[in-house]
Amino acid sequence: MKISTRGRYGLRVVVDLALYSKSGYTSSNNIAQRQGISVKYLEQVFNALRKAGMVKSIKGARGGYMLACDSATTTAGDVLRVMEGKLSVVETPDDETAVEDTMGRFLEKHVWSKIDHVINDIVDSVTIDDLVREYKRMMEASSLIYYI
Q1: Which of 19, 128, 138, 144 has the fewest beta carbons closer than 10 A?
Q2: Structural domain containing residue 37
Q3: What is the C-alpha to C-alpha distance for residues 79 and 74, in angstroms, rounded to an integer?
Protein backbone atom coordinates (compact mmCIF):
# COMPACT_ATOMS: atom_id res chain seq x y z
CA MET A 1 0.00 0.00 0.00
CA LYS A 2 1.24 3.43 -0.84
CA ILE A 3 -0.32 6.58 0.60
CA SER A 4 -0.83 9.07 -2.23
CA THR A 5 0.17 12.71 -2.24
CA ARG A 6 -3.49 13.50 -1.57
CA GLY A 7 -3.45 11.42 1.62
CA ARG A 8 -0.11 12.78 2.81
CA TYR A 9 -1.14 16.37 2.16
CA GLY A 10 -4.51 15.81 3.81
CA LEU A 11 -2.83 14.70 7.02
CA ARG A 12 -0.31 17.57 6.83
CA VAL A 13 -3.13 20.09 6.41
CA VAL A 14 -5.14 18.76 9.34
CA VAL A 15 -2.10 18.83 11.63
CA ASP A 16 -1.25 22.34 10.36
CA LEU A 17 -4.76 23.54 11.19
CA ALA A 18 -4.57 21.95 14.63
CA LEU A 19 -1.32 23.86 15.20
CA TYR A 20 -2.23 27.25 13.75
CA SER A 21 -6.00 27.73 13.69
CA LYS A 22 -6.75 27.60 17.42
CA SER A 23 -7.43 31.35 17.50
CA GLY A 24 -9.37 31.59 14.25
CA TYR A 25 -9.42 30.82 10.58
CA THR A 26 -6.17 30.33 8.67
CA SER A 27 -5.86 31.36 5.05
CA SER A 28 -5.09 28.77 2.40
CA ASN A 29 -2.15 30.93 1.27
CA ASN A 30 -0.54 30.69 4.71
CA ILE A 31 -1.06 26.93 4.86
CA ALA A 32 0.23 26.48 1.31
CA GLN A 33 3.34 28.48 2.13
CA ARG A 34 4.06 26.62 5.39
CA GLN A 35 3.50 23.21 3.82
CA GLY A 36 4.98 23.80 0.39
CA ILE A 37 1.74 22.85 -1.35
CA SER A 38 0.23 24.77 -4.26
CA VAL A 39 -2.93 26.67 -3.37
CA LYS A 40 -4.76 25.00 -6.26
CA TYR A 41 -3.94 21.50 -5.01
CA LEU A 42 -4.66 22.55 -1.45
CA GLU A 43 -8.19 23.54 -2.45
CA GLN A 44 -8.80 19.99 -3.72
CA VAL A 45 -7.60 18.61 -0.40
CA PHE A 46 -9.83 21.02 1.52
CA ASN A 47 -12.86 20.08 -0.59
CA ALA A 48 -12.55 16.45 0.50
CA LEU A 49 -11.94 17.39 4.14
CA ARG A 50 -14.86 19.85 4.12
CA LYS A 51 -17.26 17.28 2.62
CA ALA A 52 -16.24 14.87 5.39
CA GLY A 53 -16.92 17.52 8.05
CA MET A 54 -13.31 17.69 9.22
CA VAL A 55 -12.75 21.34 8.32
CA LYS A 56 -14.95 24.37 7.94
CA SER A 57 -14.30 27.44 5.86
CA ILE A 58 -15.30 31.05 5.47
CA LYS A 59 -14.79 33.02 2.29
CA GLY A 60 -13.54 36.57 2.18
CA ALA A 61 -10.66 38.70 3.36
CA ARG A 62 -10.80 37.36 6.92
CA GLY A 63 -11.77 33.89 5.81
CA GLY A 64 -9.87 30.70 5.69
CA TYR A 65 -10.03 27.25 7.19
CA MET A 66 -10.43 25.83 10.67
CA LEU A 67 -10.73 22.33 12.08
CA ALA A 68 -14.32 21.24 12.53
CA CYS A 69 -13.40 17.93 14.11
CA ASP A 70 -12.07 17.25 17.60
CA SER A 71 -8.31 16.84 17.33
CA ALA A 72 -8.28 14.80 20.54
CA THR A 73 -10.43 12.07 19.04
CA THR A 74 -9.73 12.38 15.30
CA THR A 75 -7.02 9.96 14.23
CA ALA A 76 -4.55 9.85 11.38
CA GLY A 77 -6.60 6.92 10.11
CA ASP A 78 -9.76 9.04 9.98
CA VAL A 79 -8.01 11.62 7.80
CA LEU A 80 -6.32 9.04 5.57
CA ARG A 81 -9.62 7.23 4.95
CA VAL A 82 -11.26 10.50 3.88
CA MET A 83 -8.43 11.14 1.44
CA GLU A 84 -7.64 7.58 0.31
CA GLY A 85 -10.72 5.47 0.97
CA LYS A 86 -10.26 2.03 2.50
CA LEU A 87 -6.70 1.43 3.72
CA SER A 88 -5.78 -1.96 2.32
CA VAL A 89 -2.68 -3.47 0.77
CA VAL A 90 -4.67 -5.26 -1.93
CA GLU A 91 -7.97 -4.51 -3.58
CA THR A 92 -10.60 -7.06 -2.72
CA PRO A 93 -12.89 -7.98 -5.60
CA ASP A 94 -16.62 -7.38 -5.34
CA ASP A 95 -18.63 -10.48 -4.48
CA GLU A 96 -20.36 -10.22 -7.85
CA THR A 97 -17.08 -10.25 -9.79
CA ALA A 98 -15.18 -12.67 -7.54
CA VAL A 99 -14.18 -15.82 -9.32
CA GLU A 100 -13.68 -19.06 -7.44
CA ASP A 101 -10.15 -18.43 -6.24
CA THR A 102 -9.01 -20.71 -3.46
CA MET A 103 -5.44 -19.36 -3.31
CA GLY A 104 -6.67 -15.75 -3.39
CA ARG A 105 -9.05 -16.36 -0.45
CA PHE A 106 -6.32 -18.23 1.40
CA LEU A 107 -3.81 -15.34 1.02
CA GLU A 108 -6.49 -12.78 1.92
CA LYS A 109 -7.17 -14.61 5.18
CA HIS A 110 -3.59 -15.42 6.17
CA VAL A 111 -1.58 -12.46 4.82
CA TRP A 112 -3.41 -9.45 3.39
CA SER A 113 -6.04 -9.07 6.11
CA LYS A 114 -3.36 -9.34 8.81
CA ILE A 115 -1.28 -6.59 7.18
CA ASP A 116 -4.42 -4.44 6.83
CA HIS A 117 -5.25 -4.99 10.49
CA VAL A 118 -1.79 -3.85 11.64
CA ILE A 119 -1.82 -0.78 9.40
CA ASN A 120 -5.29 0.24 10.58
CA ASP A 121 -4.36 -0.33 14.24
CA ILE A 122 -1.37 1.99 13.88
CA VAL A 123 -3.09 4.86 12.07
CA ASP A 124 -6.12 4.60 14.37
CA SER A 125 -3.95 4.80 17.49
CA VAL A 126 -2.44 8.20 16.63
CA THR A 127 -4.66 11.23 17.20
CA ILE A 128 -4.15 14.65 15.67
CA ASP A 129 -3.39 15.95 19.18
CA ASP A 130 -0.65 13.30 19.49
CA LEU A 131 0.89 14.53 16.24
CA VAL A 132 0.66 18.19 17.30
CA ARG A 133 2.31 17.40 20.64
CA GLU A 134 5.15 15.47 19.00
CA TYR A 135 5.64 18.13 16.33
CA LYS A 136 5.93 20.86 18.98
CA ARG A 137 8.37 18.71 20.96
CA MET A 138 10.49 18.15 17.85
CA MET A 139 10.50 21.86 16.99
CA GLU A 140 11.49 22.83 20.54
CA ALA A 141 14.33 20.31 20.55
CA SER A 142 15.63 21.52 17.20
CA SER A 143 15.60 25.16 18.30
CA LEU A 144 17.89 24.60 21.27
CA ILE A 145 21.26 26.26 20.82
CA TYR A 146 24.24 25.03 22.78
CA TYR A 147 27.15 27.32 23.56
CA ILE A 148 30.56 26.01 24.56
Answers
A1: 144
A2: 5-142
A3: 8
